[in-house]
Design a protein that fits this description.
Length: about 850
């Protein structure tokens, strides 16, 4: 029998207690809740973007349990993302929720997590012996590779594609990425892991869809639509998915009717004649295949057809919100061809020349910047609150003023040998320097009480009842406060970018995309948060317009919901015009409503709201930061202060303001025949074209739709496009408004057809606005082609002396500041 010494009893007692605890813990875990956490969604992550977390929660007990999984990304400075889940007895639940990953140079993104159990969410889920309280899940960080192109190529597939076509789709994705200069980082997405969160696609640069049963996953379809509206780029292989998936994703935005499906060993593709020959020199393609390729013969009502075969669309492009969708109706192998060596033997494969439109629109096109920057919205909010942060210049002035005063006084005291006065002069100078700072701070703090301002930008996608709302929430607090933020319907408010000061801020998700921020504190002043939310409508919003005797007239079917204000119409013309709404949702605009470049309302006295909206409009129509001019289609822009919100930014007495800018495509319909109509300048876009000698003027930029200052003489032929819905059109009146600065020059204005241009008027040293009435007989022949041609010939600048003798040429710039054409007439049979 072993004897136990007296000094061994404490150790033995501790071991016995530990063994009992281990038994109890293991028994408790087997009876209650166990949790497995991993990376969800695409099972990948990119630093600086949203990622998805997945948790499998098992309730092994006989009663319902509640658990909260708290995830803390490494380097998040106290920001946590939690999921509260209710698990019935004997059930295993899987849940997903978004987590923001902070930018880092680390090769791995790490997420620490802990599981809390119980309704008070204070008790740790019991664990086994030697298991850490805080656990970790990791995933590779692709953002550390600068050549990665910013994200992955996502592929939505469910193994429902043709066994022959599936590897071809995968190979085509890789070839497209290689042709675009980005590595073939490809990730396979399972629709049942999306769970309705558009953030599941944040790590993607583009998305390819070939799953034929995607329409059976409504939450994945919802997330995909919203992601596209926010700027996503998608290629849909309709020959693989079928029309049901297209209908589920695009709805009324792309109505289509499938006639039948056919196969062929020979294809003859024809490019859209409107495609630029200089950009796409290959106009027709003939290819033969050993194995037959499939063509889904489809009738479509909208979209731009890049390539067709026997009149049937093969490749179609469609804008959806800020995003782009390309639809291919033919087998994917037609976009791949063999690479041959000098002996004519295949040594690899590459994309074809006629797949360039796919590469450009989906795999190369850079991400579109926001229509309105966060900085502009933040400034507008600060102006509306009446709060302004003292500038860095003000702070520098106070600091340097204090330093200079201290140096000056110190030198004087040193020279007079009275250094002792500095003992009381230094505090006096410090107080004097602090006074203006205190006054500026007091003025800022006392202007307004607690205020929350939400500003959103919405691209109204045709045929969609769920719209993406993105913007900025600006919260002003005169004193440090704890915000009460509640969000529903998958809305997101990004965490503050400032350091949290060691405090814990937690975003807690519950069921069906509902969340709330806990312990989100804000210091004195104004703070701006980037927001993402959804707007759900009872019916798709549609703006339809036509022409009458006065100009443009139309109706917005959702006007009762939006209550539109300060509306403008903009299109491919450099000029835009104001729109007036009636109570029943009808709107109208005339040539007199055309606005100047910095004008956004026809009213003389502007309210504070209109001044704020003008600031935003100025940013919207400023194309400097964008690669493409906005808009790229005829659009109706308007403001609404009455939209329902899925965000509650604060509670109590905090003032709430909300304003949304909506951008909506404007659909034109044909006016009645033989009825007088007026086509305003905004509806008559123009571009510089080649003249009969093959030259093209550089004074007008077709790409940027702006006039450039020029030197020397120039001949410029402009082609004005009459709206398709008004053709065939016959004019009975035409007016050209020309604002020009071309002193000491002669400017000839001609019109007619390309071969029979005739002089209308010569302007000597024109400076200012000139209104010319164009002869109708010169226009009618040109209008048969749907265009009006105007030629401007600007001569050399000359200087003459008092005797009328020319003293030679001199270098003098000239510029056309505005050119507007107004037509009146009728649509004829």
């Amino acid at each position: 029998m072993m004897r136990i010494r007296n000094d061994q009893w404490p150790v033995l007692l501790c071991l016995s207690l530990l063994a009992c605890c281990v038994c109890e813990v293991e028994g408790a875990e087997s009876k209650e809740v166990s949790v497995i956490v991993s990376i969800g969604g695409a099972e990948r992550a990119v630093g600086g973007q949203w990622a998805m977390i997945k948790a499998d929660v098992a309730n092994k007990s006989d009663t319902d349990q509640e658990a909260t999984i708290v995830v803390t990304p490494r380097g998040s400075s106290g920001l946590q993302y939690a999921r509260r889940v209710h698990v019935p007895a004997g059930v295993v639940r899987q849940c997903h929720w978004p987590v923001f990953t902070w930018p880092t140079d680390e090769k791995m993104l790490q997420f620490d997590y802990v599981v809390l159990q119980g309704s008070d969410n204070q008790n740790l889920v019991q664990r086994r012996m030697a298991e850490e309280v805080v656990r970790t899940v990791s995933v590779g960080n692709s953002a550390i590779n600068p050549a990665s192109g910013g994200g992955y190529c996502g592929w939505l597939s469910t193994d429902t594609e043709s066994l022959r076509e599936r590897p071809i789709v995968e190979h085509l994705n890789v070839l497209m990425r290689e042709a675009a200069g980005t590595p073939g980082m490809q990730v396979l997405l399972n629709p049942d892991k999306i769970q309705g969160y558009p953030e599941a696609f944040d790590l993607l640069s583009q998305l390819v869809i070939s799953a034929s049963d995607l329409h059976h996953f409504p939450e994945a379809c919802d997330a995909t639509r919203v992601w596209i509206q926010r700027g996503g780029k998608v290629l849909i292989h309709v020959d693989q998915t079928g029309p049901e998936v297209v209908s589920a994703l695009l709805g009324d935005a792309f109505p289509l009717t499938v006639i039948d499906a056919t196969t062929t060993n020979t294809i003859d593709l024809v490019i859209n004649p409107d495609s630029l020959k200089t950009r796409y020199p290959v106009r027709e393609v003939h290819r033969e295949f050993e194995e037959p390729v499939r063509l889904l013969r489809t009738m479509i009502e909208t979209g731009y057809v890049h390539w067709s075969m026997d009149g049937w669309p093969v490749l179609v492009q469609l804008p959806l919100g800020r995003g782009q969708v390309l639809l291919s109706f033919m087998s994917p192998e037609i976009y791949i061809e063999d690479q041959l060596n000098s002996a004519g033997q295949p040594v690899g494969s590459r994309i074809t020349t006629y797949s360039e439109q796919i590469r450009e629109a989906v795999f190369v096109q850079p991400e579109a910047p926001p229509l309105v920057s966060r900085e502009v919205l933040s400034k507008v909010a600060a102006d509306r609150v009446g709060y302004s942060v003292p500038t860095a210049g003000f702070a520098a002035s106070v600091m340097f003023g204090f330093t200079l005063a201290l140096l000056g006084v110190g030198l004087v005291a040193f020279r007079r040998e009275k250094a002792a006065v500095m003992l009381w002069l230094v505090p006096v100078l410090a107080i004097a320097a602090a006074v203006p700072a205190m006054m500026a701070g007091s003025a800022s703090r006392n202007v307004a009480g607690e205020t929350a301002i939400r500003q959103d930008v919405i691209f109204v996608a045709p045929g969609q009842t769920t719209l993406a709302m993105d913007g900025v929430a600006s919260v002003y607090c005169p004193e440090p406060s704890t915000l009460d933020i509640r969000l529903t319907d998958y809305a997101l408010m990004n965490p503050p970018e400032e350091e949290s000061g060691g405090e814990i801020h937690r975003l807690v998700w519950t069921e069906r995309g509902v969340s709330e921020w806990q312990n989100l504190t804000q210091p004195t002043g104004i703070r701006n948060y980037r927001t993402q939310s959804l707007l759900r409508l009872d019916q798709p919003s549609q703006a339809v317009a036509t022409f009458d005797a006065n100009g443009l007239t139309g109706k917005l079917n959702t006007a009762s919901t939006f209550s539109p204000e300060d509306a403008v119409v903009a299109g491919l013309s450099p000029d835009r015009m104001a729109v007036t709404f009636d109570d029943d949702g009808t709107f109208h605009s005339t040539p007199a409503d055309v606005l100047s470049s910095q004008q956004f309302s026809i009213t003389t006295l502007l309210s504070d709201d209109q001044l704020s909206r003008a600031s935003v409009y100025s940013e919207v129509f400023n194309d400097d930061p964008r690669t493409e001019v906005f808009p790229n289609e005829l659009s109706l822009l308007y403001w609404s202060d009455s939209l329902p919100s899925t965000m509650s930014l604060a509670a109590g007495e905090m003032g709430q303001q909300a304003s949304s800018l909506l951008v909506q495509p404007l659909k034109l319909t044909s006016p009645p025949v033989n009825t007088r109509i007026t086509i305003p300048p905004t509806m008559l876009p123009y571009r510089a074209v080649l003249d009969k000698y093959g030259g093209i003027g550089s004074a007008f930029s077709n790409r940027n739709r702006v006039w450039n200052a020029s030197e020397g003489s120039a001949n410029l032929l402009l082609e004005f496009s009459i709206p398709q819905v008004c053709q065939p059109f016959q004019s009975d009146f035409a007016r050209l408004d020309l604002r020009i600065r071309a002193g000491l020059r002669k400017v000839d204005v001609s019109c007619g057809t390309r071969e029979t241009l005739q002089l209308v008027q010569t302007l000597d040293s024109p400076v200012g606005l000139f209104t010319l009435e164009l002869p109708v007989d010169l226009l009618r022949e040109a209008e048969q082609g749907g265009h009006v041609l105007i030629k401007l010939s600007v001569g050399d600048a000359e200087v003459v002396n008092s005797d009328g003798v020319s003293e030679g040429e001199r270098d003098d710039t000239w510029k056309i500041e505005r050119l507007m054409l107004t037509l009146q007439g009728q649509r004829i049979e």
